[in-house]
């Protein structure tokens, strides 16, 4: 496309407020997935045993109701009796008793927990069987709650978004490269070559996708790259058919005949006329292909053929949330919310780009 047509398409897109809002939402989601995990204060693999299946909240943890049960568990591990607990601002003061002298080294269990910092002995009885200890309270926030293991769900959703968006974008780019080239050549050349190329597409359509993935597992380990190869290897077929159909409909147009009459070869017509005039359907199909790839990755991960732990994706999190729907519905709502927003933004942006890049307008 010439610079003037590109600028015109950009102005058309800018006037479409819905498409601009969708683009902003996609950029914000991508930036959140890239930068957000460094700002949440939680490592994605960090397990908080004291906060398993914690509900979403804006309040800091531990709450007053969570302090005493956690201290009772720690006292049992230290083999002492928790006589008194007092909370003073950001500190907690404990009075510990035992039948034998208490070893101060056991107090390292406090900072090893999720709730308390390093402990300081304030008072000690002469026989060592009674200690008064003071420890700072940690302030933890779980805006979207935690999962079945006690991992922060917001951090995991953001990290999972990196994998899902990477799979969607890379597989879509590969599918576009193969599908557009293959379909445009097939539709423009026509004849016996077109029939042969379409029969190859039909044969590939007939191959069961799961069987194809299982064959790949014979040669490669299950993981992210296997998903990329498997999805990119089959998702270009629809794109090839779409571009072929559009190209064949354009061959009878006057500007195609004029290009050949002016001495343009097949390659020049393909690059300057065929592909630019099919950009509208291509962009629309591509924006629908990204969410389909993400959902396909979810299916593979659900079967254990896709992304493997400790890595995760929105599909993996949705599968985990579906299994824990009754006990922890937020585990499904959080990743599903990210996925739904992304899919809606992609669809709306695709509509805007399709209109902006339509050369007939």
Indicate the CATH class of the largest domain: Mainly Alpha
Q: What portion of the residues fall into strands of 2 or more residues?
A: 5-15%
Which architecture of the largest domain does the CATH hierarchy give at level 2? Orthogonal Bundle
Mean pLDDT: 82
> Can you identify the CATH superfamily of the largest domain?
MetI-like
Helix content: 55-70%
CATH topology of the largest domain: MetI-like fold
Strand order of the largest sheet: 2-3-5-4
Number of domains: 2
Helix- and strand-based class? Answer: alpha+beta
State the low-pLDDT regions, or none.
none
- How would you describe the shape? elongated
Q: Summarize the helix and strand pattern as letters.
A: HHEHEEHEEEHHHHHHHHH
Query: What is the number of beta strands?
Result: 6
Return Rg in Å.
Answer: 29 Å
How far is it from the N-terminal to the C-terminal residue, by CA? 14 Å
The description of the largest β-sheet is: 4 strands, antiparallel
Individual helix count: 13
